[in-house]
Amino acid sequence: MKKLLLLLLFIPLLSFGQKIKGKKIFSIKAAVGEWQSSVGEYLNLKTIYAPYTKGVFDGITNGKVLPIGGDYPLYHQEDGKTFSDLDIDIVLLTEDNEKIYCKASGVFNYVTETFESLKFQTHWRFRTSSEKYKYLNDVMGIGFGSVLPADSEYNFQHDIYDVHLK
Q1: Cα separation, 120 vs 106, whole angstroms
Q2: Run of H or E residues at 143
Q3: Boundaries of domain holding 120
Q4: HSE-up of 74 (CA within 13 Å, CB side)?
Q5: Least C-beta-crowded within 10 Å: which of 5, 87, 133, 159?
Q6: What are the tens digits of pLDDT across the range 139-163?
Q7: For position 116, which CATH number holds?
Q8: What's the domain count of the chain?
Q9: Is residue 25 a contact partner of residue 160, using CB atoms and an 8 Å limit?
């Protein structure tokens, strides 16, 4: 009887389960310039401003990150870890001279002393007036970030995917 009950519970999951489909949109590597610390405090959270000074990207098109925008996270530190709520603005310039504005929010949690990433996930929106890339205006991207090695000319990499149900 228990087996029959369990089977009846799992049949809807097997027959009506939705599959996720996705494709990579961009890999963005960005360098952070001289950041400003302690620009404010809100609800026991601190803020900084970390401007993006340069970068490159590839994916559906290639190009560079313009030195416009950056990250303005809220963060707090506890037990040797930093917990950040990201607020990212990036402007991409494609090889065919089109601009794509990118806005992301997410979390970046890391070991404070070593910068070892514990969690680095983002949600992305795009805006462009380009006819070629205007479909991006309807995309809600999911990103996974990583900290690049100290000897790299870039600090962070964002791998962004267009994820939706089939």
Answers
A1: 7
A2: strand 140-147
A3: 20-165
A4: 8
A5: 5
A6: 999 999 999 998 999 999 999 999 8
A7: 2.40.160.20
A8: 1
A9: yes
